[in-house]
Amino acid sequence: METTDSPITSLTPSDQNVLSENDIDSISELEDLLPPSKMESSNESKAIDTSSDNLNPKDVHVESQQDDAVVFDGSEKLVNASKDNGPEDTGEIVVTMLGRGKLDEQGVCANRIPSPLSETSLEASSHWDEDVTAESWRQHRKHVFVLSEAGKPIYSRYGSEEALSSTMGVMMALVSFIQSGDNVIRSVYSDEHTVVFMQQGPLVLVSVSSTHQSEQQLRNELIYVYNQIVCMLTQASITRIFEHKKNYDLRRLLTGSEKILDGLLNLVDFDPSFFLSAVHCLPVASSFRDSLSQILQKAITPNLVFSILVAKNQLLTIAQEKMVIEDAKLDPADLHLLINLIGASSAFQAGEIWTPICLPSFNPDCYFYAYISYLDPPECTVCLLLLSTDNEAFYAVAECKRKIEEAMLAQNALTYIAKAQSYSVSQVGVSDLRHFMYKPFDVPDNHHQLTQFTSPEMEAPYDSDEEKMRLLDLYRDMHGRIHNTSRPLKLIYHVAARETLLAWVTSKFELYTCFSPLVTKSCAINAITKLLRWVKKEEDRLFIRYPPKYSTTSNASKS
Amino acid sequence: MSLRELKVCLLGDTGVGKSSIVCRFVEDNFDPNINPTIGASFMTKTVQYQNEHHKFLIWDTAGQERFRALAPMYYRGSAAAIIVYDITKEESFLTLKNWVKELHQHGPPNIVVAIAGNKCDLTDSREVPEKDAKDYADSIHAIFVETSAKNAININEIFTEISQKIPLLVTSDSGLKGLKLRRDQSDLTRERACC
């Protein structure tokens, strides 16, 4: 999505009236969902005020909440610090105590409406018969809509697309209204909701969220949604279809795939790999991981490009064709889409699947042919993915699976994998440390490497869905501040009511930690030193250090 | 006893019950909340037929429109195709006729066609009269049965009928090998071009 630097369109109240006269019912529907108090149409984060009075109460509200903690803002200092001074600048820690009520507010928010939470994780399949006029529909934490440029609904996370066609029509009206002024609508902010718009080719994606995530984060999530659609159809064919017929109903091609998008949005909410843009590896002894890698390296056939072993939604190992990765590498985002795809549908649990799959970050216009099969039916936890560029290679690739299966059986690998699990934070041996996420940048061969991160299980008090989500929301907020485009931070020390968090980015790693609420600052910093030492010691187990490669002898055809 | 490998593919509209039929045949299971197939799913089952073992290599294809263009990949080289429609959905019967046409034009010349009118347990909401379907099947010399994957009606029977209708092997069999060679040589180059 390109940003336009042209002057901001002023959307005066009278303009809005013109709009609503045409479509008064649907406007009111949308307005119920999102009382528009300010609109952003450039990345300068200048707001277009429809009525500037609306804004003030909110701002005042935020100020008044700062009284319970000291705020060291020091923005200039932070901006300077962000110019990568290496890890030495740790002595000069710029501490931002963010006592702003915002974070705690989120906790309250999650408690106030616990029902959508449990719903998202369990009842995604029945979302389409939800009553879109009901209050419960409005209360969902995050709505995602996909529509075509002609305003035709393609996907809604909650409620049926038909029932929402007028709402989506209004969304398209907003997009084209701003467009007609040679501008691009990016987001609308209200007290409770952030609405982010994103146009990708002929598709428009809209996120309506009450999660207080940053616009950038919401935008990234929309990119995942778009890419999941591309993963199924390829960008080239989407473009071709709409060039041919502007008002094409893309749902025809996506029937049966709603579950995959629902699954993706649930994962995006509950799995930090998405906002960290990194892959979570299942921790196993490095010798064992190497032996698995060798098994994959030996079972090859011409045109095989990637061999991937996934267990319990985490990566075990991945081997790749040498030729291909010379000019492109597998992006974590593509792997997330693959893992979501196999997790979202039980269709993969029956027999051996052969299906075209596009890896959007790798090449959005081409299909790979994926062989997907679980190695441990009926439990179905260990999944093998073999990606080939040859659509006729099924039998040859299935033969590779046979070899892999045999070799794994000989080593009793499945029993070992079944025992492998994520670790407990207590293994780190740092008291007061409740949870952390560590994403290293200093892996060997970094250029051709998958970005990875490691994280222990979420244990008490973060063992319920609500608490898990609350912690993830805190992390997301820290992540959003660290990566704020206008004012990036290097270090945040955040004291909240129920926990203390510390986020820290250096040239070597990105780290998010969660401590018990009574920890002192020096204590936390000590703990982090210990944690870093522990990770260093365990890194062979936690990460794939040297991703294996193979060469499929014959001239591998690249598409 | 000799072993013959028979490649069978299932075609038909989305949601008519192709995977359910395969699931009933292979595992004798029925899952009312089965997920739509993605791409195609490959399964095998060996059954005894007279003095032979017939190993069915079953390609259960996805019915969604986006996978439609892939069908030739699965029906090419098939000994038989089971085209499935839903007796409670007239439209799925029309789709079936298109599949028959496509097979006649592009399918293997001697392919055995079987038509399965699935969900015959739902007689109350029937839209396709059995006689119409039967007449149509006769007109194209296809096997015809009404099936119910849910109640296990006529599922094994349809595969038995396929076994009966498959022409006897003239020479000694080397099933899979022969299949593989053909694919490697003739089709690969042609497919490349369109990719």
Topology:
The complex is a heterodimer of chains A (559) and B (195).
Chain A: H1 13-22, H2 24-33, E1 38-40, E2 47-49, H3 52-64, H4 75-81, H5 101-112, H6 114-122, H7 135-138, E3 142-148, E4 153-156, H8 165-180, E5 187-189, E6 194-200, E7 203-209, H9 215-233, H10 235-244, H11 251-254, H12 258-270, H13 273-276, E8 279-280, H14 286-298, E9 304-311, E10 314-321, H15 322-325, H16 332-344, E11 352-357, E12 368-374, E13 382-388, H17 394-410, H18 413-419, E14 433-440, E15 452-453, H19 465-482, E16 491-495, E17 500-505, E18 509-515, H20 521-542, E19 549-550
Parallel strand pairs in A: 8-15, 10-19
Antiparallel strand pairs in A: 1-2, 1-5, 3-4, 3-7, 5-6, 6-7, 9-10, 9-13, 11-12, 12-13, 14-18, 16-17, 17-18
Helix pairs in contact in A: 1-2, 2-8, 5-19, 9-12, 12-16, 14-17
Chain B: E1 2-12, H1 18-27, E2 40-49, E3 52-61, H2 71-75, E4 80-86, H3 90-106, E5 112-118, H4 130-139, E6 143-146, H5 155-165, H6 175-194
Parallel strand pairs in B: 1-3, 1-4, 4-5, 5-6
Antiparallel strand pairs in B: 2-3
Task: Characterize this entry briefly.
The complex is a heterodimer of chains A (559) and B (195). With 559 residues, chain A is an alpha+beta fold. Chain A contains 20 helices and 19 strands.
Kindly describe this structure:
The complex is a heterodimer of chains A (559) and B (195). By secondary structure, chain A is of the alpha+beta class. Chain A has three domains: 8-68 and 423-542, no CATH class; 116-270, Beta-Lactamase; 279-420, Beta-Lactamase (2-Layer Sandwich). Helix content of chain A is 40%, strand content 18%. Chain A is built from 20 helices and 19 strands. Chain A has helices at residues 13-22, 24-33, 52-64, 75-81, 101-112, 114-122, 135-138, 165-180, 215-233, 235-244, 251-254, 258-270, 273-276, 286-298, 322-325, 332-344, 394-410, 413-419, 465-482, 521-542, and strands spanning 38-40, 47-49, 142-148, 153-156, 187-189, 194-200, 203-209, 279-280, 304-311, 314-321, 352-357, 368-374, 382-388, 433-440, 452-453, 491-495, 500-505, 509-515, 549-550. In chain A, the strands form four sheets. A seven-stranded antiparallel β-sheet of chain A has the order 2-1-5-6-7-3-4, with helices on both faces. Chain A has a six-stranded mixed β-sheet with strand order 11-12-13-9-10-19. A four-stranded antiparallel β-sheet of chain A has the order 14-18-17-16. The radius of gyration of chain A is 24 Å and the shape is globular. By secondary structure, chain B is an alpha/beta fold. In chain B, strand 5, helix 4 and strand 6 (143-146) form a beta-alpha-beta unit. Helices cover 37% and strands 25% of the residues of chain B. Chain B contains six helices and six strands. Chain B has helices spanning 18-27, 71-75, 90-106, 130-139, 155-165, 175-194, and strands at residues 2-12, 40-49, 52-61, 80-86, 112-118, 143-146. Classes of the chains: A alpha+beta (559), B alpha/beta (195). Strand 11 (352-357) of chain A pairs antiparallel with strand 2 (40-49) of chain B.
